Each structure stands twice: as structure tokens, then as C-alpha cells.
Amino acid sequence: MSEDDEYEGSYAYGNDSYIEPDFDWVVIDIYAVVAIVGLLGNASIIVVILLNRELRKSQINALIIQLAIGDFLFLLLTVPIKIEHEIDPFWQFGSVACKIYRFGETLAVGVCVYSITAFSVGRFLGIVMKKGERNFTKVLILTEWLTAIGIAVPTLFITTLDPTPSGLNHYCTFPHQTTASQVYVVFWACFLYVIPLGLIAYTNILVIIKLVQSTRKFSGEQVNRSLLKQFRIRRNRAAMFILITVSFAVFWMPYFVFRFWQILGSGPVVVNPARDALRQMHYYAAIANSCCNPFVMYMMSSKYRKALFCRLPSKHNAGVASANSIRSGRSRTTRFSLSVRY
Predict the structure, then answer these.
(1) How many domains does the chain have?
(2) What's the CA dihedral at 117, 121, 123, 124 to 10 degrees?
């Protein structure tokens, strides 16, 4: 269920050797750049929220941290292995590392998927069901991690090292034709894509209906500023979550479809450039989504942007700090002179 599964069909192996195309180095460079950008973006979201008192108080931001952690783990665990396998498609790290890698990859995907699901369920409970945020956020976070771990655990038992025809090298993969692998990949696709996406769509539709009804109510009444501000915040959050959800549905679909077809497809694998390009593109889409999420948050929320800019070294921030220190020094001097005069 990872990129290694496709190497056997993407290269021609005689005695476990392969011809390395020039295109591979372009792929490696792209993976490296995208991974660095994504890791920095997701790390910045985590740090910005944790270091900002106002953002840290929000229970919704606790869920956003979980999504950033999931995206960060997915990039950190899978991209280096992906780059290594673009250079050498054989698994060199032993059976235990193979199982841990598969488990970590599936866990990271599960955390990403169920973080978005937790957003949607949390907003449904808060806006439609009128439940307080503090009543369910911790439960949602615990549930998403337990669910992700539960989905990932079977990979520890299914993943194997398949030997090459010569027996000199191995692939870290699922046995394609075993019943256990085929049953698990159906379970995997349903619980990491189909079912969460259906739940996300259902809860978001109800939230949108509720917000539209509130808009009509506000348009005909005189409301105070605080209530109007709260409504606008909810509306902006809804727009951000919908954009993240659509991005998830679009970018992860090739990933799940390709993996589903790879395990359940019958017949010999046809080696051709088109299939190899498809193999690359389905993984590009997945890592692109993990990279885009933090920038969607910065784009849709002025609070995140302000919190980030406050943490970045700049002339403006230095000037503000200098001015504050000067004013503080003048204040202390004035108080001292007044005390002397007295």
C-alpha cells in the first residue's frame, strides 16, 4: 500500500538491476522541495498556535494542531523513503523497519483524515446541536487517534518482505494476491476515505444550512456587534474547512484509487511510461495536499497570519520593540525624577 508496491512493475529487473532514468532526479528534487515547504508550513502552524495565548484557548485550534501533526508525520515518514526508493527501489532496512514504516504511513494518513472529520463533527455539534466546544474536543481528539491506530495496526501483520526473482533483494509490500491483503485494502479505503468523506459531507451540509438560516435572521434584525463578529468568524471557519475538505477529496482520490487498483487488479502488470507517470502523480497529489493545508489556513484566517508575523523577525517588529523599550525607559526615568523631587 505504498509507493514501493509499484516498483516491481515500473522497472525491468533481470538479475535485480535496473536502469535509472534521468527523470528520476527531477522527481527527487521535486519531492525534496515540496517536503521541505510542507514540513515548515505545518510546523509553523503548530508553533504559532502553541505560542499564541488567544489561539491556544480555542478548542477548534486544538483540532487544527492534530491535522498539522498528521500532515507533518506523513511528509516526514514517507517522503525520505520515497526519495530513497526512487534511487534504489529495493528495501534495504529489514523486516521490522518495513512493518514500522507501513504502520507509520497508515497512521499518519489516518490522523490527517480523521482530523478533518473531527473538524466537521465538532462544528456540527457546536453550531447545529448547540453543544459547548469544551464538552467534545478532547473526546474527538482521543477518538481520532484511537481510530487511526486501529486502522494502522493490521499493517504490522500483513506487511512482508517479498524477495526478487534472484532472492538477492526484497520489496517492502503487501502480498498482492492474498485474501488478507485484499480484504484489508477494501477496509482501508472505506475507513480512510469513503466513510469519513461521507460523514464530512453530511455534517458540513447541515452546518451550511444552519449558517444560511442565521444569515437570513441577521439580515432582518438589529444585532449587536459581538454577535455579528461571532457569526462572521463561524462563517470564515466554515469556508476554510470546506476548502480543506474539497482539497482532501480531490487530492487524495488518486492515492486511494491507485492503491485500491494496485492490490485488487488482476493480470500481469504492464510496464510503460504512462503507468509510471501515473504512479508518480498519485503520490504527488497526496503530498501536495499535506503541503497545502497550512497555507490554506494562513490564507483564510487573519489571526493565523498576524500570529505568524509576530513571530517572524522583521524591521517593523524590531522597531516596535525598540519603541516600547524607549517608552518604558522614559517612564522609569520620569518616575525616578518625580520621586527625587518629592
Answers:
(1) 1
(2) 140
